[in-house]
Amino acid sequence: MTRAEYLHRLEQALRDMPEEERRRAMEYYENYFEEADSEQAALDALGAPEKAAADILRDFQTTAEAHRQKRKTKRRRNCLIAGLLAAVVCCSGAVAAHYTISNKQEIPEIVDLAPEQEIRSLNLEIDGSQVAILKGDQWQLAAGKSTTVDLHGSYLYIGQKDKTGLFQRQPGQIILTVPPGEVNVMNISVATGNLNVEHFTIPERFSCNMGTGSAVLNDITSEQVVLYADAGEIIWNGTMAKEGFVNCNTGSIDVNLGNGSVIGCITGDAGDSRISVETDGADSVEAVNLTEAFAYPIPGTTQTGKLDVTCNTGKVSVKVQMGEDV
Prior knowledge:
Elements lengths: L2 H11 L5 H17 L3 H8 L2 H41 L2 H11 L6 E4 L8 E15 L4 E4 L3 E6 L2 E6 L12 E6 L6 E26 L3 E16 L3 E16 L3 E6 L5 E7 L5 E6 L4 E6 L2 E5 L7 E7 L3 E7 L5
Parallel strand pairs: 2-5, 2-6, 2-7, 7-8, 8-9, 9-10, 9-15, 10-16, 11-15, 12-16
Antiparallel strand pairs: 1-3, 3-6, 4-5, 11-14, 12-13
């Protein structure tokens, strides 16, 4: 691989990032090559561009989440002050009525998105809600007014900002139906709440970032799978057709690999935890606990793909089905 090839692959893997953030990342890696002793030394130190892209995307999502939480805390503080002032000037009956309103959920509205062009990249950024992404005959969204939709070419963005205040209704459930075979890239980020995604083949990349709450990702097939759990829980079942990246802070991630996966080796760093791996073959089950930095070849397979796992103090378990589908 040459420097030009590395930078091209890196830029392709970062194509769903905001333009300004992607430009800064590319400038950093271009400068890295400039300052390195040689092009080969830089390539050896950097590793695969897709792994670097996964780290960049994870850091970007973590930073964005920190900013969102900071803004949310400030809004809640302001709302608390406003609520206390309202309590002084309003009668108790009125305050009780406001409290009732504030705890009602948004009324979902069903919208047929019906994009004229193909949607190749689906991106969801959710502050706090119950989210379900299901296979359907057409693009359809059921959600409340705090959910927004932006369509730019083949890029579809769905966002939901958690609203606070005495008169605000709480976000309800978001249900999105997606026609099969439409989406090449699916990126999902949920700050808090629950997520359910079932029965999708995503040719290029599937990524899921969970802050708190839980995600069940069932029967998902993709070339590249990226999972990040901060304090939440992710359960993933499916097939990795090329590679996977799993990062867990204090939460938990369960990965169940079908026998169509190309993963032949699990690498990474267990941090202060243990990463459990169970290989379920036709005749036997082998279980190991991986600690510290490791490179564990999966027994009984000649596949060359890698699953890169990093865990801080949380829990990651990997189960490999050697003789049957998930």
